[in-house]
Amino acid sequence: LRISPLILGGLEAFSRAAAQTYEVFFQEKQLYKRLEKANFTKSSLAITAPTPSVPKKIDMPINLSPSNSDPRVFKIAAVQAEPAWLDLEGGVTKTITIINEAAANGAKVIGFPEIWIPGYPYTPFCQNFIEAAPVLKAYQANSLPLHSEQMRRIQDAVKAAGVEVVLGFSERDAGSLYMAQVTITSDGKIANHRRKIKPTHYEKTLFGDGSAQSVFNVVQTKYGRIGSLNCWEHLQPLLKAHLYTQHPQIFVGAWPPSWESKPGGNMYINSAEAWQRMSQGVSMEGAMYGIVATQVVSKEGAKKMKIFGPDGSQLTEPIDPGKEEILYADISLDRIDDVKLIADNQGNYSRYDLFHIAVHDKRAKNWHAASYENAKEQNAFNEIYGEVDNVAALGLKAVDEEV
């Protein structure tokens, strides 16, 4: 029996259509079975299904805006200058002058040195406590409170200039000092306030530790996600790891004055060259631009200021030793993708199944609630003082987070 090719082709097409129809019918039948188990009705698919459980925490990817692929070019600036030593008003005035100058030259992101106001206190390193006491008293008196008229003047200057600023300062909080940084966004608001988590060496005799919120040191701005580190925080592996999880695109590495290393004297790890390499390393590890800002107090320490690319390349030449100057570099965030394509240590070049860090974000309290036998008195006390703590100015809630 010979069958026409035309008829044969038609039979094959019919066979395929029948198989597809059966598959659709089978899938619909299975779907209806699942819907029946979920208490749906076939006719209306009514909303009678049980409410699904909602996880307590949903990890969502950070939306980078502008993204690592954004080709637009803008200017960033690193400040190398001598502070207005022990002069709060002079320091505020000089800060505003530098912000205005950098903005006039086209800078959109400006990084200042560590405790720029009122300068880095080398005095106790060179004198005993008795000799240094008068200077340290003046240092405390000229330190900058977070919520103060002086800080508001700086915020107003940032807003007027339309720039993003990371400012280092000695923060006075009641009777204590902290090595603080604030990120002030172009709307004049303090988007991030942090304190150096562990003052280094003799700094511990003057400054307190940063609280848990200080490890959250990256904020979103119009010109990318900006992070910040103080001095030897560059040597804190876990702090750096947590910095990278926040996906910064630019960071400010803030440093004090420095000197070159000498045999039998200043160790290499405490030299300008070593500090420069630390910031360069953070730029490479995090695939981000690095603004390295420093104070000027000696010719030897002045060559440290640099701006690094996300691949660790040096984007600027050293300026004249001992010279106060603002260093500029034109950047575009799409260079970050060049590095991320090769090694993204928060993505394709990570092993979270092997390593992770736990961040304990609990607000520390400097008081203990009084205990009353009378419930009414206890409730009244709790209403008034229940939320009082020593980092309330940060406005953050206490949570535990694992990264």
Automatic annotation (TrEMBL):
Record-annotated active site: E114 (proton acceptor)
Domain annotation CN hydrolase: ranges: 74-333
Keywords associated with the record: Hydrolase
Any single Pfam family the record assigns to this protein: CN_hydrolase
GO MF terms held by the record: hydro-lyase activity; nitrilase activity
Name under which the protein is recorded: CN hydrolase domain-containing protein
Family membership noted in the UniProt record: Belongs to the carbon-nitrogen hydrolase superfamily. Nitrilase family.
Record flagged with keyword Transmembrane: no
Keyword rRNA-binding listed: no
